[in-house]
Design a protein that fits this description.
Layout (H helix, E strand, L loop, with lengths): L1 E4 L2 E4 L2 H10 L8 H11 L2 H8 L6 H8 L5 E2 L14 E3 L2 E3 L3 E3 L12 H11 L4 E3 L7 H7 L4 E5 L4 H15 L3 E5 L9 H6 L1 H6 L2 H4 L3 H5 L2 H9 L6 E6 L3 E3 L4 H6 L5 H10 L4 E6 L2 H9 L4 E4 L13 H12 L4 E5 L5 H9 L4 E4 L1 H33 L12 E2 L8
Parallel strand pairs: 6-15, 7-8, 8-9, 9-12, 12-13, 13-14, 14-15
Antiparallel strand pairs: 1-2, 3-16, 4-5, 10-11
Helix pairs in contact: 1-18, 2-18, 5-6, 5-18, 15-16, 17-18
Length: 412
């Protein structure tokens, strides 16, 4: 297994990969929640809460998952299929499954292979990977690791000069699309991070880290990987003109100074000639504006409940957005996907595909690339089984007739 570390490459021993794969194999791991439990044991509390937590009271975080219970199935029985194709087409790319791996900031903190491992797993599975601006690995290395399409999620951190430079790098490296996140004028307050010392872990002095040392020392496997990887290096894809790569500690201030506006989309579209996905849409107004600004796709998203708390769950907002765009652009959705049945419900309500974030990130934190592979395998197997149980011959034939939706959802 090749793992990229900055610009250097090292080869992990084969037995390490085998052990990782065994640690997440069935019957020990049969669901995404099993991967979550292993991740919680493997990494320090601050790292787990960074991955697992949400904004403020975490109302939206919880509702993103719970809301799937409000949509029930209307299966067709006494039917059977030799095959149930799971393929779909997103932004002109044929994907083997109707889910993409969503951008997860600084995945390198969860495992040294981080974004490179996730991109490789996505490509091997025949789907796309979306790289966060807040990445621990160079975008060129991430793109080189994947057999499939890789998209770049863009924040305007460091100003337009830094953004234009990274757009140029993404184009030269062969990235296929830009994903512009519009719901982050400032960073949401994630209270778990304050309580568990996330800031101190990534940027504090040795003295600042002392209160949190017990939780770090209690995870020697993670700690050894973290130290071998050099701790938390600067962000290699946010290169500020005249200053160099941005330190991880500067993210909150940088986000506050880099709000994306509709006028920014105009110059982004002028600088990037490929497809643009607008991520963070929850209302019909923003959906129509995204279409007007030339979005090739929209991702219905509340940032995984990590920004503004007490907004609608993504699945709940999906019908309003689908209705507003009238088929003028592709619709994606992210938020709360943990099972194949969740994916089916989103597709029935009009999504072309979904983005999975925490589902694979739990796997990454649990067992590196082997964990991401296992998360993808779980979702794919769930999806195939649920599709057959619903009685639908392929994902491209799913529609509202296969689900019961609460009456007030159609009142929008």
């Amino acid at each position: 297994m090749v793992v990229f570390r900055g610009e250097r490459i090292f080869r992990a021993p084969a037995h390490a990969m085998t052990h990782s794969a065994r640690s997440v194999a069935s019957p020990r791991v049969v669901s995404i929640s099993d991967l979550r439990a292993i991740a919680k044991r493997r990494v320090p509390g601050s790292v787990f809460d960074y991955l697992d937590g949400g904004a403020e009271g975490e109302v939206t975080l919880r509702e993103n998952c719970r809301v799937f219970e409000d949509v029930t199935f209307r299966p067709r029985h006494a039917v059977g299929f030799v095959e149930c194709p799971l393929r779909t087409r997103v932004l002109g790319f044929d994907l083997a499954v109707p889910f993409l791996l969503a951008p997860v900031g600084y995945s390198r903190l969860m495992h040294p292979a981080g974004e490179v491992a996730a991109a490789r797993a996505a490509g091997n599975a025949g789907t796309a990977y979306i790289l966060s601006t807040i990445s621990g690995h160079r975008l060129e290395d991430v793109k080189a690791a994947s057999k499939g399409p890789v998209f770049y999620q863009l924040y305007l951190m460091g100003g337009r000069g830094a953004a234009e430079a990274v757009i140029d790098r993404a184009r030269i490296a062969g990235f296929s699309a830009l994903v512009v996140t519009i719901d982050t004028p400032v960073s949401g307050i994630r209270e778990r991070d304050f309580r568990n010392g996330m800031k101190e872990l990534v940027s504090g002095s040795a003295l600042d880290k002392i209160p949190y040392l017990p939780q770090i020392l209690a995870h020697p496997g993670w700690l050894m990987g973290y130290l071998r990887d050099g701790g938390t290096p600067p962000l290699p894809n946010v290169v500020v003109p005249g200053k160099g790569p941005m330190p991880l500690v500067d993210i909150t201030a940088a986000l506050a100074a880099s709000t994306v506006t509709w006028s920014d989309l105009k110059w982004i579209r002028e600088h990037w000639r490929g497809p643009i996905v607008v991520k963070g849409v929850l209302t019909a107004d923003d959906a129509r504006r995204s279409v007007d600004e030339g979005a090739a796709a929209i991702s219905v998203s509340n940032h995984g409940g990590r920004q503004l708390d007490c907004v609608e769950a993504s699945l709940r907002a999906l019908p309003e957005v689908v209705k507003a765009v009238h088929g003028q652009t592709e619709i994606l959705m992210d938020g709360g996907i943990r099972r194949g049945s969740d994916i089916i419900k989103a597709l029935c309500l009009g999504a072309r595909a979904v983005l999975c974030g925490r589902a694979y990130a739990y796997g990454l934190a649990a067992a590196g690339e082997a964990g991401v592979n296992r998360a993808i395998e779980i979702l794919r197997t769930d999806l195939d089984r649920s599709l057959r149980l619903v009685g639908c011959p392929s994902v491209d034939q799913l529609d509202r007739s296969y689900v019961n939706v609460p009456a007030n959802w159609d009142a929008d």
